[in-house]
Amino acid sequence: MEAERIRVLHEAEPRDGADYVLCLLQQANRSRCNPALELAVEEANRLGLPVVACFGLLDGSNGFPEANARHYAFLLEGLADAAAGLAKRGIAFVARKGSPAEVAIDLSKRAALLVLDRGYLAIQKQWYAEILKSAKLRVVQVEGDVVVPVEVASDKHEHAARTLRPKIGRRMADFLHDISPVKVKHSAAGLSLKGMDMSDPAAVLAGMTLDRDVSPVRRFRGGETEARRLLKAYLAGPFRNYGAERGKPEAGAASHMSPYLHFGQISPVEIVLAVQAAKGGKDEDRTAFIEEVVVRRELAMNHVHYTEGYDRYDKAVPAWARGALQEHAKDKRPHRYSDEELCEGKTHDHYWNVSMAEMRETGYMHNHLRMYWGKKILEWSDTPEQGFERTLRINNRYFLDGRDANSFTNVAWVYGLHDRPWARRPVFGTVRYQSENSLRKIDAKAYEASVEKLCAAERDGESDPAAEARTKSMKARSGAGTRRRPG
């Protein structure tokens, strides 16, 4: 493991007389290719102790901001899969209702040391600060959510992908190493720790207090096993045309890895190594894919890490863009819509409504259409501030990968972040405009047909044989009872 992934947050000798080494798996919800977990296993083996992995499940009034039943169903499926994988390795998994900080602080009372994984959102930084404030033991944090650690790539907020790309390019090879699972020498099977039974995600979901207006989806099922299955199938087929067709939503060239990356159910390092090793695909396919999963994704991490208030218009949007939009704030807007009309897809723009249906019903929208979708909300809002707030609100509500660094960055891009001034236009000023003509680059009718099929599958509850097989495999590994699908 690269030393630059590891940070000692609280220096202390490992505690004597402890029962285990504790690892908080709050961002990296997986049992393999997980640097934080492997470091915890190495330390536990050295100290002659078992490993306990933990997770804090936010619920009720303390729930994760903007998360709903759709997000929690996918999360819980991933936790069930991770728990099964951890048990197979001899690692205990303890999930409790409460903030990650509360859970980690309580379990750390019996731990020799605490290993944290890492995320870059403000709420995650708040958890780490709370843990450190109460820490009475050694605390180590290990980066496992990006290829090149954010501070290693750059020590400042980058202006655009063009400024970050060469910095990542110089270091990327240094961090592309396969992380083999370390053999656990001391099983945690004999430990007695109170935690939730995660083997039935539907039962856990049913017992939670949360927003259920946005229902779980059948299109995507959570878990590292499913992520790896999808990646393998993708590299054997659609990836071979990624370079030429990635901008066409009807072509099916997207990998659909973003929800799994968001919930930490697969490592970006694992994805890049698999892409580099894939027998199919051309160099242009690999280059284009790595640009998206490394450069563009890690530009988003750079943005949220170095921007205090990344979810606010006045902080996230650059001054030149705010000025340009303000100059045209009183321009005539032929179409204005309420949040309800937008969410229900009741606008005059037929294909915008189609893309909204895909998002609303299946939790996904192709990046090409996400940008068009966001630009139109800006155009149809009373003010740019209102447009920013509602774009982010709707994005985070329906997308499975909403509330992600990519989400905050992409919404801010609509308003000028990581961009430059363009020709002046009404409403937009010199911020980039996107018209209906951009849809000519795609086969809109083919896209609409694919969305209709996907939405019908959500309504009709079509079964997914591959997902059912995965469920049976998980049941066999965990020894759990029948696992019901949420929703």
TrEMBL record:
Stretches of Basic and acidic residues bias are at: 457-471
Which Pfam families does this entry report, sorted A to Z?
Answer: DNA_photolyase
At the top level, the lineage of the source is: Bacteria
Query: In which organism is this protein found?
Result: Roseomonas haemaphysalidis
Q: Which SUPFAM superfamilies does this UniProt record tie to the protein?
A: Cryptochrome/photolyase FAD-binding domain, Cryptochrome/photolyase, N-terminal domain
Span list, region Disordered: 457-487
Q: What does the record give as cofactor?
A: (6R)-5,10-methylene-5,6,7,8-tetrahydrofolate
Photolyase/cryptochrome alpha/beta domain: residues covered: 19-150
- Which InterPro entries does the record associate with it? Crypto/Photolyase_FAD-like_sf, Crypto/Photolyase_N_sf, DNA_photolyase_N, Photolyase_Class-2, Rossmann-like_a/b/a_fold
Q: Could you identify this protein by its name?
A: Deoxyribodipyrimidine photo-lyase
